[in-house]
Amino acid sequence: MRPSAVGAWACAGAMVLAGCGTGTVTGTGKIVDGGTFTFALDSDPGNLDPQASALATATQIGQFAYDHLLNSNADGKLVSGLATTWKATDKKVVLSLHKGVTCSDGSAFTAADAAANINYVADPGNKSPLLGVFLPVGAQATADTAAGTVTMTLAGRAPFVLHGLAALPMVCAKGMRDRSSLAHETLGTGPYRLTKSVAGNEYTFRKRSGYTWGPDGIGTATKGLPDTVVARIVPQQTTAANLLLSGALNAATVTGADTSRLEGAHLFAAKSPTVTGEMWFNQAKGRPTAETPVRRALTQALDLAQLRKVLTMAKGAVPTTFTAAEPLVCPGDSITKALPAHDPDAAERLLDAAGWKAGGDGVREKNGRELALTFAFDTSLLGSSGTAAAELATQIWQKLGVKIISRPQDLTRIGQTLFTTGDWDIVWEALVPGSPDQMVPFLSGPVPPAGTNFAHIDNADYRAGVAHAASIPGTEGCPRWLAAESALVEDAAVIPFANQAIQTFGSGATFEYAGALVPTSIRMRAR
Length: 527
Fold this sequence. Notes:
Blueprint: E1 15-16, E2 23-24, E3 36-41, H1 56-65, E4 67-68, E5 70-72, E6 78-80, E7 83-89, E8 92-97, H2 111-122, E9 140-144, E10 149-153, H3 161-165, E11 169-170, H4 173-177, E12 192-198, E13 202-207, E14 228-233, H5 237-246, E15 251-254, H6 258-264, E16 268-281, H7 292-301, H8 304-312, H9 344-353, E17 357-358, E18 364-366, E19 369-370, E20 372-378, H10 379-400, E21 403-409, H11 411-421, E22 426-428, E23 431-432, H12 440-443, H13 460-470, H14 478-490, E24 494-506, E25 509-510, E26 523-524
Parallel strand pairs: 1-23, 3-14, 20-21, 20-22
Antiparallel strand pairs: 2-16, 4-11, 5-6, 7-8, 8-10, 9-10, 12-13, 13-14, 15-24, 16-22, 16-24, 17-18, 18-19, 25-26
Helix pairs in contact: 5-6, 7-9, 8-10, 13-14
């Protein structure tokens, strides 16, 4: 998710596909060198292979140990990473690599290694959740080691291919040879190396010396970077807030009621615009939500404005596209006109017409089967206010005659539910793409375990729309991308209903947040 695959991705526990914003400095002290930076993760990342998972927690861990060929700054501009120069045409990308890049094991990182990474992810047999998200399907790479260049050929136009490369982690040769080792250790070119891991508890990193190839050329000699970084598993947001206020944590993403205490303490906060409320329906064969009338009825029964107010504590905004990361690649409105209108009476009529009749106990039935739906929602992202919103939705659906089995889950369990067990009917989980093409594998194509289309969506209008959009260069295709999103909203396949500026608070440190903490942006501060 944060599908981190969801493979995926979200800014604060959801599934993050790309960046989410940067912070505003308040109440900060003088920059100090060295020290230990401790931050909270709301769940354990599990498998640490950066090309095998897209969970936000795994993505965050990977940010410290792995680099990308390109990076994207706070303004959305592409800047250097492992590549210093790049050129993209319709079906080709050529990148020149930074000289002298080394891995955490001391070996050199070469153009051949970069090409091997691209080809590994591009091979469908490897089942990387990053394929089709950060790397176009059909891409192939070759290397000129002497020249230090990588040439990537594309099967067709990929208007946002460079944005994808800015999120594709590069693994060093030793890790490529032994993929199993990446599950519990890191082998990358990043500014930090993992020195200790205790699953379910904490992960410790040490700063690498001689690192000079960070975003836009920044290195680890920069004043204020911590010598040690500790990622600590803190499942409860109230606990994380308490640890921030006591000084035991330097950073944590906190939503819900606890934000008021942290704001009142005038802590630093990196604010990240993101989708927080996004409703999906399982369209797998045999599921009641595979029926369009059922999905539309469940949507129309809800007062989404009311849910948004509860979920975000009246701090949310109305989504207009499936992306929220600023600056928007494709600004516009794909949602408002397509959204099924709030109409509880119409919702009842839809279910009646579809054969779901009220039973003696008030629960609707069809052919002897109850309309019983499993409702999962992400407690990592939504917090206590999300639980309150979920309880409100449950009450409304029960009044409609639907039996709801509520299953609040953290991000790790949500990922298992969506991509392994498939035991769900409704889920609140937000995907946070940086560009509309990054959503395509989650909204179409193969279903788990072969793919990431966890909701089993098969919408012909969407497929045709994205195929047309992908054939148009750059942002010229944005109207087509937005029209494709509208087709899904109209079909009640995916319903984004709340955006919010999620806050990652800092104590004794400042930093930028772009889908995850940016390691080279951390500056330790005197308290």
